[in-house]
Write a sequence for this structure.
């Protein structure tokens, strides 16, 4: 199916464990993003990527790692999960041209770190 | 860096009435895009309306319209004839039009309740 999908939808992990959230898009969009959503903060940018093998930090990158070896995939890894990383995570993508400015979002992953 | 502020954490409206959600932003750029996204309980982010900064005319999509005041850096959303399905969290967002600015910057969100 065309679109942007995240997996898993829900994840519970223990403090100190490594966890990877997956994001896949089928539009060949150049830009991909990871946001976290916390009450009172809206969506805050963790990392973004302008193209394959090009990534950059956003507003809250500490404790996270990303990679983008293929245009369609943009996984987010928590190297050693902490309770403060309990959040809802959204992946998004958008095209490069200025006509299609809309960002498309995945369904979100609710991550709980215990 | 750009910032987006939504000063109303919660709003409520009676069904069939009109409500306005506020958003202000700070930027030194002259060319950019502004968006309102809706997030229902399903968590899905849904684009409601977009505005290009170079356009003076306010965007309209059916019952949704914006009041874009570029000099005041204000971008409010008006929902007319509110429906129960409009109940959701609403986010205002900013995107630079420059080649390095494709990321969206969001406000804190406004939770809208629609009362029957």
């Amino acid at each position: 199916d065309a679109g942007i999908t995240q997996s898993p939808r829900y994840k519970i992990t223990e403090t100190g464990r490594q966890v990877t959230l997956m994001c896949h898009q089928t539009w060949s969009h150049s830009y991909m993003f990871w946001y976290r959503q916390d009450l009172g903060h809206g969506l805050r940018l963790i990392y973004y990527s302008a193209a394959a093998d090009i990534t950059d930090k956003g507003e809250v990158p500490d404790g996270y790692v990303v990679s983008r070896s293929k245009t369609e995939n943009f996984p987010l890894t928590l190297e050693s999960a902490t309770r403060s990383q309990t959040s809802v995570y959204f992946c998004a993508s958008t095209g490069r041209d200025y006509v299609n400015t809309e960002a498309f979002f995945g369904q979100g992953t609710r991550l709980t770190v215990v | 860096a750009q910032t987006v502020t939504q000063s109303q954490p919660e709003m409520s409206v009676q069904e069939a009435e009109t409500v306005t959600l506020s958003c202000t932003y700070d930027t030194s750029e002259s060319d950019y895009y502004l968006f309102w996204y809706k997030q229902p309980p399903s968590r899905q982010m849904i684009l409601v309306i977009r505005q290009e900064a170079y356009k003076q005319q306010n965007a309209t999509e059916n019952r949704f319209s914006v009041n874009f005041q570029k000099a005041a850096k204000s971008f409010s959303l008006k929902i007319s004839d509110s429906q129960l399905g409009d109940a959701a969290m609403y986010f205002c967002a900013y995107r630079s039009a420059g080649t390095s600015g494709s990321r969206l910057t969001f406000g804190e969100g406004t939770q809208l309740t629609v009362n029957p």
In short: Chain A has no helices and eleven strands. The CA atoms of residues 92 and 105 of chain A lie 4 Å apart.
